[in-house]
Amino acid sequence: MKKIVEFAFTAIILAMLLSCGVSQRGVKDSRTGRVGIRDTASVKDSTEYELIVFDPGFEFWLNSRSFTKNQYTNEYLQTINHQYVQEWNRRYSSGDRRIESYIDYSPLTKYDFEFNYRLFMYFRYFEESNKIALIPGSRRRF
Q1: Residue 86 in domain
Q2: pTM listed for this prediction
Q3: What tens digit of pLDDT does each residue of 54-88 get?
Q4: Which domain holds residue 46?
Q5: Is 141 contained in some domain?
Q6: Are 22 and 1 in contact (CB under 8 A)?
Q7: In a domain, 38, yes or no
Q8: How far apart, in whole angstroms, are the C-alpha atoms of residue 94 and residue 60?
Q9: Is residue 96 a part of any domain in this protein?
Q10: Are 40 and 47 in contact (CB under 8 A)?
C-alpha cells in the first residue's frame, strides 16, 4: 500500500512538472519537510505563484496559532521574505545541514499577498521548530 501511495504522489508531481509548460522552482529541507514554489502561466500571460509546503506539521502549526493576516501589508511581507531568503540561501551556501535547497525568490517580482504570507509563516514555523533565528539580530521567542 505504501508503494502505491508513493507512486501516486510521484505521478502527481511528475504530471504537475510536465503539464502546460509549468516550471518548478523548489526548496527542500530534510528535517522539516519541503517547500515548493510553483509558477504557472495563466491565459492572460500573467504569472501566478503558488507555495506548496509538503511538511504536514506546517499546516497544523499555522492553524493552531492565532495570526491576523491584516496586520501585515504585502510590501512588508515581500521585504521581510527577501531578507529571510537571503539568509536561507547564505546558510545553504555555507553548508548548514538544516537547509538543503536554494530558494529562488526575486525582490523584483510582485508576488501576491497570500503567497508572501504563507512564505513568511513558513519561515516563522522553521525558526520555531528549529529554535533558531534566521535573520540575525531578530528577537524571536521560541
Answers
A1: yes
A2: 0.66
A3: 788 999 999 998 888 899 999 999 999 999 999 99
A4: 2-130
A5: no
A6: no
A7: yes
A8: 31
A9: yes
A10: yes
